[in-house]
Write a structure and sequence with these properties.
Blueprint (H helix, E strand, L loop, with lengths): L3 E7 L4 E6 L5 E7 L1 E8 L5 E7 L5 E4 L3 E7 L5 E7 L11 E2 L4
Antiparallel strand pairs: 1-8, 2-7, 2-9, 3-6, 3-8, 4-5, 4-7
């Protein structure tokens, strides 16, 4: 299986994401800080959110067709590990901007 690992950071109050993928699945792991994940299905508009932190690690998965974002709700910089089942292709980007809330 071909996959890609990466990580990103965000300062207090910063939201990353606000997009969905037509084919890509991603798994996130907050390793430092506190996060609020927001999700919205692009066809039904169903929404939900999930709170997680580096103190109690939890893998959070996104699947195709769900717009998602992550906001740092902690007191410090947030660090998040990311796994994707597809390698990013600059010639065929699969990230479609789409609000969550």
């Amino acid at each position: 299986m071909v996959a890609q690992f990466s990580y990103f950071t965000a300062h207090l109050g910063i939201t990353r994401g606000g997009h969905y993928h037509p084919t890509k699945t991603e798994k996130f792991l907050v390793i430092k800080g506190q996060a609020r994940f927001g999700f919205r299905h692009v066809l039904t508009d169903k929404t939900y959110e999930l709170l997680t932190s580096g103190d109690q690690p939890m893998i959070v998965e996104t699947i195709p067709g769900w717009s998602h974002d992550i906001t740092n709700i902690g007191d410090d910089k947030m660090i998040v590990m990311l796994w994707a089942n597809e390698i990013f292709d600059r010639d065929r980007p699969d990230t479609i901007a789409n609000r969550v809330f």
